[in-house]
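Retry 2 of 3 after timeout on previous attempt. Resubmitting structure tokens to design endpoint.
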């Protein structure tokens, strides 16, 4: 799985867990709708660290909390 795939899966899981809409996350994080759509549907191939920080902020969590999921374990990611 790519890093982008892992980020999209994590975002989806957190949206469900927090009963939050994607639109609300976009508002709270400051990420443009088009950019969020690219992340969520896999068109974005490189998610930046600043994007991860913005997503975490939108979920009212730290970047470390956002990345604290087995999705982001090196053995689960295609890092090439």
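Retry 2 succeeded. Sequence:
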């Amino acid at each position: 799985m790519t890093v982008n795939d892992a980020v999209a899966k994590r975002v989806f899981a957190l949206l469900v867990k927090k009963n939050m809409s994607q639109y609300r996350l976009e508002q709270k994080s400051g990420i443009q709708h088009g950019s969020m759509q690219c992340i969520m549907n896999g068109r974005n191939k490189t998610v930046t660290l600043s994007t991860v920080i913005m997503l975490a902020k939108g979920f009212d969590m730290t970047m470390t909390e956002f990345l604290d999921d087995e999705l982001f374990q090196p053995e689960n990611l295609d890092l090439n």
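Attempt log closed. The mean pLDDT is 94.
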